[in-house]
Amino acid sequence: MTTANHVRTHGRRTSRPSGDDREAAILTTAERLLSERPLSEISVDDLARGAGISRPTFYFYFKSKDAVLLSLLEPMIARADSEFDGAVQRLPSNPRGMWRSGLKAFFTAFGSHRAVARAGTEALATSPEFRAMWQDYMGKWIDQTAAMITAERARGAAPDTIPALSLSTALNQMNERTMIATLADEKPAVDHDHLVDTLAHIWVTSIYGETPAAALKPAAPQ
After folding, report:
1. Which end of the chain is more exposed for a tag (fewer CB within 10 A), N or C?
2. In this structure, which CATH number among 1.10.357.10, 3.30.1330.50, 3.40.50.300, 1.10.10.60 belongs to the domain 18-62?
């Protein structure tokens, strides 16, 4: 076997990481470092060194370490958001299950990457770009929840009490604060294993009133 053939056979030895590989390495490094210390204590040099690239190369992929965090947070938020797809149509068939599954999906999306989620809560105070994105999603979730509450009231499953938008705003903001406390291991905080059931209980009783059991029956076939 000639030297040239040997090199071709073991092409990995001379191949260079692709752009996607470098970007993934930066993101992997960031998540690993966030599990050890806050973003404020992580430098661009730390991220570049962990990814095996130079500082100038880092800036080819991300404009800042905040941009790296945003790239980690975006897919988590998108996963939580996807639970709302078709939710209004699915709700009448299993109201309690629908609300609970939505809360579980939301918590799972962030709970599976707790270090990144914790960094996101810190970024709300320091990153205008992330704060604007989060506020947009919160506004969307509040509006969608209000529409679902209104639909439940329209079919006679939930009492028409306080304005749906006000109730939705309070419930979603409660979710945000309660989940942050649990993910950040604050004291006091709701236990991780009890969080979804606790929030689901509050949501169901708030939306359906004092006698949720009757209201939570599936809609009658049309």
Report:
1. C
2. 1.10.10.60
